[in-house]
């Protein structure tokens, strides 16, 4: 098979789709008005935002006035957690979350702990899952917020958010429930009315918009502190002139993603073929995360006797873009907190690979990965003294 380019890092970011770009282009040109201006150009921009907000609300199952535009998922996470904590601190200072959250969540919680808030970090099982009963048991009279991500960005585990929310509300109706749904939206059905959550975060660049646009859903009646004080935009909660083109692009991207959810059956079939092919072709490999109840495009496998960073570099040379479960920062030698939390040994966590495919992925792309990955893993193992010992013991 000839060398080709395969992008398998869609959990990190996605390519901006042609239809999203087309929807955005007018607002880089003649639709340049400020939505707060009363003249014709301003009214046109305001109308575009209003229509986008209505479309997004319809697709998520909420009301337009519950949609707040942000710059990304991390901003939405920070705002939801810190804004709710500070708004409700008079009633209590206890928060419940899990050990496998995105760093935008974990670092927000750490910041609150420095201010005197108490956080209970729940353990997860070997698949990265918490149970509704486990979460409800951690809720107390002074618990003001429960946060649990909808789908894990590393191992693809889908959490039982609807059942979790119901269990929390049964234990303490005043406790707010927030879910980081950045990886879930566009990949699995997400309807906030059905879920019952009080807040939900999503990010556009995970569903084929450019980077720089996100949403925080805040249920009517839920009070959180303002994020940015300014000119009254986003109903006074997040001031600043709106990013019209990106808001329009997000509405189009969400419409396309939700409308194409059935296509994810094909993506899941490719995912399973990747998992089965890798485990069949490469010994001393372990699947991280569940077989069932996993994001359709997520594959996370650890390989013994190698380092994930070296694996990524050689895959990149072969034209395959992927990610590793090791620390994203080259200045840190810490393994993935998610993999360690699900029981993966530290040395094995360092040798992990995340392949995240999408509807743009083809069967030929899967074939190419399955052709190139085994010899690359073997090449790295041939340089490993640990693997040499294993081979000697097998003789």
Relevant terms:
14 helices; globular; 13% strand
Structure description:
With 395 residues, the protein is an alpha/beta fold. 41% of the residues lie in helices and 13% in strands. The protein is built from 14 helices and twelve strands. The protein has helices at residues 18-24, 40-60, 73-87, 103-114, 132-138, 161-171, 192-195, 244-259, 264-281, 308-317, 337-341, 346-349, 363-382, 385-394, and strands at 6-7, 67-70, 94-98, 118-122, 143-147, 176-180, 199-203, 214-218, 285-287, 298-303, 320-321, 352-356. A seven-stranded mixed beta sheet has the order 2-8-7-6-5-3-4, sandwiched between helices. A three-stranded antiparallel beta sheet has the order 9-10-12. Strand 6, helix 7 and strand 7 (199-203) form a beta-alpha-beta unit. Helix 9 packs parallel to helix 13. It is globular. The two termini are 34 Å apart. 48% of the residues are buried.
């Amino acid at each position: 098979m000839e060398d080709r380019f395969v992008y398998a890092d869609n959990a990190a970011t996605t390519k901006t789709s042609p239809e999203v770009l087309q929807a955005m282009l007018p607002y880089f040109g003649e639709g340049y008005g400020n939505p707060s201006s009363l003249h014709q150009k301003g009214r046109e921009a305001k109308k575009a935002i209003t229509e986008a907000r209505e479309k997004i609300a319809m697709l998520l199952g909420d009301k337009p006035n519950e949609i707040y535009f942000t710059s990304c998922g991390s901003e939405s996470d920070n705002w939801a957690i810190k804004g709710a904590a500070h708004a409700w601190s008079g009633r209590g200072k206890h928060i419940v979350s899990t050990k496998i959250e995105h760093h935008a969540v974990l670092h927000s919680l750490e910041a609150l702990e420095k201010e005197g808030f108490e956080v209970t970090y729940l353990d997860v099982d070997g698949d990265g899952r918490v149970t509704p009963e486990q979460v409800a048991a951690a809720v107390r009279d002074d618990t003001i917020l429960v946060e649990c991500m909808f789908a894990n960005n590393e191992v693809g585990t889908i959490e039982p958010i609807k059942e979790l929310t119901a269990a929390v509300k049964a234990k303490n109706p005043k406790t707010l429930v927030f879910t980081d749904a950045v990886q879930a939206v566009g990949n699995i059905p997400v309807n906030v009315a059905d879920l019952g959550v009080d807040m939900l975060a999503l990010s556009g660049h995970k569903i084929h918009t450019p980077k720089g646009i996100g949403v925080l859903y805040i249920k009517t009646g839920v009070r959180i502190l303002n994020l940015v004080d300014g000119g009254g935009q986003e109903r006074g909660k997040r001031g600043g002139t709106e990013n019209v083109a990106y808001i329009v692009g997000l509405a189009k991207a969400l419409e396309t993603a939700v409308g194409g959810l059935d296509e994810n059956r094909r993506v899941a079939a490719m995912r399973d073929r990747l998992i089965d092919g890798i485990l069949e072709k490469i010994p001393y490999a372990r699947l991280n995360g569940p077989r069932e109840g996993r994001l359709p495009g997520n594959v996370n496998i650890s390989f013994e006797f190698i380092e994930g960073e070296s694996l990524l570099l050689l895959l990149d040379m072969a034209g395959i873009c992927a990610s590793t479960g090791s620390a994203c920062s080259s200045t840190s030698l810490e393994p993935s907190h998610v993999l360690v939390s699900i029981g993966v040994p530290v040395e094995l966590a360092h040798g992990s690979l995340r392949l995240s495919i999408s509807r743009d992925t083809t069967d030929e792309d899967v074939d190419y990965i399955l052709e190139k990955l085994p010899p690359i893993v073997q090449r790295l193992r041939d340089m490993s003294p640990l693997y040499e010992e294993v081979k000697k013991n097998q003789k």
